[in-house]
Each structure stands twice: as C-alpha cells, then as structure tokens.
C-alpha cells in the first residue's frame, strides 16, 4: 500500500466515522423529541420508534421532514425566552458627543477635572497619562 492509497483509506475512514456519529446524534435527537412531544399519542410514538428501529437513516430524515418545524418549536419552548442583556453600551456618534457628555458630568459634579481630561483624551483617540 503506497502513501496515496493509505491517505485515501484514512480519509474515507474519517469521513465514514463522521457520518456514522452524525447519524447517531440525529437519531438520538429524533427519539428525544419523540418522547418529549406531549401532543403525540402513545401509539404514534410506538409507530415512529418501530420505523426508526428498522430504517434509522430514512426514518430520521423522514421525521425531520414531517415533524421538523414542531421539533424546532419544542426545542425553543423548552429553552425558554432569550434573556436580553441588562447592559447595552451606548454607541456615540462622534467624539464631540462624548466630550459634551463628559462636560455635562463635570458640570454636575459627578466627575473630577482629571476624569474629564481622561475622557476627553480617550474621545479624541489620545492616550492620557495625567
């Protein structure tokens, strides 16, 4: 066996292993979704399981075609609402806006003159060492 035959054999072995594992994961997801579905009657769950037992690849793909949308909805429902972040950084339009906001904070007494100078330098893109 020369190098190219060995490389081809190795490539196909890796590819076959990947497809096999992906098929097992798909089958696991389908069976998991089948048992989590509360609207589907028990007899239909048994029919699906028998179908998946005898033809797992075709059965899994057929399940995704027939019940894929409901499967996605059940996963989203189980996950719950997506939480929004509590803090969102305010995007400033220009450095002048940043300096104006810093000046307002300085006038209100919220920040010191040194902090104002640092914010002004940062807004203008300079390093401040004061």
TrEMBL record:
Subcellular localization, as worded in the UniProt entry: Cell membrane
Presence of the UniProt keyword Transmembrane helix in the record: yes
Keyword Transit peptide included in the entry's annotation: no
Domain of life: Bacteria
Keyword tags: Cell membrane, Membrane, Transmembrane, Transmembrane helix
Database matches in InterPro entries: CLS_N
Gene Ontology CC terms: plasma membrane
Positions of the Cardiolipin synthase N-terminal domain: 25-67
Membrane topology annotation: Multi-pass membrane protein
Short name of any one Pfam family annotated for the protein: PLDc_N
Transmembrane feature ranges: 12-35, 47-66
Name of the protein in question: Cardiolipin synthase N-terminal domain-containing protein
């Amino acid at each position: 066996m020369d190098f190219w035959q060995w490389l081809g054999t190795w490539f196909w072995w890796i590819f076959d292993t990947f497809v096999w594992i992906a098929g097992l994961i798909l089958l696991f997801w389908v069976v998991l979704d089948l048992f989590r579905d509360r609207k589907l009657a028990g007899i239909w769950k048994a029919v699906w399981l028998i179908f998946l037992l005898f033809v797992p690849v075709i059965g899994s793909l057929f399940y995704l075609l027939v019940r894929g949308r409901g499967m996605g909805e059940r996963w989203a429902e189980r996950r719950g609402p997506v939480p929004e972040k509590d803090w969102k950084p305010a995007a400033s339009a220009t450095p002048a806006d940043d300096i104006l906001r810093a000046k307002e904070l300085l006038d209100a007494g919220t920040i010191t003159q040194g902090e104002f100078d640092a914010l002004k330098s940062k807004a203008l893109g300079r390093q401040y060492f004061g």
